Prior knowledge:
Layout: E1 2-8, H1 10-14, H2 18-27, E2 31-38, H3 42-48, H4 58-65, E3 70-77, H5 80-88, H6 101-105, E4 114-116, H7 120-130
Antiparallel strand pairs: 1-3, 1-4, 2-3
Amino acid sequence: MEKTFSIIKPDAVKAGNAGAILSRIEKAGFRIVGLRMRHLTTREAQGFYHVHKARPFFGELVNFMSSGPCITMVLERENAILGLRDLMGATNPANAAAGTIRKDFAASIEANAIHGSDAPETAAFEISYFFPGIEL
Ligand code: ADP
Ligand code: MG
């Protein structure tokens, strides 16, 4: 079993797609280990995305991620990290495969509905950043 970290981003919560996205996650065999709705502060969003701080879109990304409530989650499954990335689809919804969450719910490369950890090291950092009480 492996754990990963995910966020249903503010665009998807605002559009009323949180339930549909969560349903897809559960149907794909993930167990919800932790879940909390939060409205991120600028500082929390900056810390979470610190690996992107040199990217030109960093400021906008931080504004977007703190623009409204989001749903933070720890998910468990076999091959959870890569499995969730497959379910999410490509970062840019224009390139996302049919049937993926981003293809069906994302509006743009920035407002792309869902986050998922991309590797074991980032999953460990991201889980402990938002759910320090959950064992890795
Ligand atoms: P992913 O979320 O697929 O792992 P990245 O880690 O590359 O993608 O980027 C983190 C987030 O930053 C993306 O999910 C998206 O919200 C935003 N982002 C990525 N690339 C761009 C871009 N070129 N312009 C605006 N926002 C972007
Ligand atoms: Mg990423």
